[in-house]
Amino acid sequence: MKYDILIENGLLLTMTEGLPVLEDGAVLIMGGEIVASGQSKEFSGYEVKTRINARKKIIMPGLINCHTHLPMSMFRGLADDLPLDVWLNEHIFPAEAKHVNPDSVEQWSCHSCKEMLLSGTTTCCDGYFHEAGVAKAILFSGMRAVAGQGVIDFPAPGVPDPKMNIRTAVEFVKEFKDISPLLYPSIFCHSPYTCSRQTLMAAKKAANDLGVLFQIHVAETKNEIDLIQGLGSMTIVEYLESLGILDSNTLMVHSVWISDNDIDIIKRVHANIAHCPESNMKLASGIAPVPKLIKAGIPVGLGTDGCASNNDHDLFSEMDTAAKLHKVALLDPCVMDARTTLKMATIEGAKAIGLEKITGSIERGKRADIILVNTDKPHVTPMYDPYSSLVYSAKSSDVDLVMVDGRILVQEGRLV
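Above: the chain sequence. Below: its structure as tokens.
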């Protein structure tokens, strides 16, 4: 048999159980699927169409960005250094009303996909309006992605009548559900303070009926609890649980202001978390209790959020920030070690968005979403521990090759 691709002679991090490090590692690929991995010598006699020499490079799974608003790269730097409510209500919402349309959404989503691919991200989880335009951009880029149509109880781009918000989301999911194995449509409720309990319950029911991921911003700011009607003495997490919103098919984004009891609830219902440290820092929203969430066994992935509040889609920077932020917050240099952090950007991120059987690690039967990171650079030398080097030393510009589903999209640091 003649195989499609053999990546060989690299330092292999599979991100599988035990987090092994394999010197002179190799990955064999056929039909976009990982057939086997091991040491290069094990594949010396194999006949392949394409051999990729990964000498002085790390072979690893592509990074997974668990929370994005791809079209918002059009607002990068528009309204920096402002509180979230002022930033959102006085700048972002008016800008969206003026500039967001199907063409601008598709154009700037393409722009964001380029940025992510060049920085080693092979999968993202998005939520926005005019999401059909986002989906088209994702399909054009060749990335793997969850794409969520936004639901909000106010006039929104593409949904001027809020009464149509659920119907629009359902129509989007039905249109794109089986269009490509790389695209996973979703329903994205903006938040508990912009969606009524009726909207939240109807959107979640629709997601369940369609078998797709339900996304929602949760407890991002300290004063968010004051904005939700009918909350009473409940926390936001308790409120969402009472509505039947939280389960294993729910992605809770941010989850900054949550209690220990909230964490117990999240664990019990098997919900998932997207942690966006740079966005939370920039908007001074707070610090999510991620070490506690991880200790409880809750899947936590990393997200950049939109470029209007970050201002980039760079997961290498996000990993470095996440690790250091929690160390200083807890005054504990041992918390959020490099291995834990890299897992959040790969296999744990895949779990958080329901794609762990498809991507997030290099294992037989999974799709070939793989990147090569160049270690032949002064800032990555010497390399005592590849995990530490990736989290604390490497930069997105060190990404040399990006492959999604066995297709090479970036080579020698350039889009192909």
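The chain has a mean pLDDT of 97.
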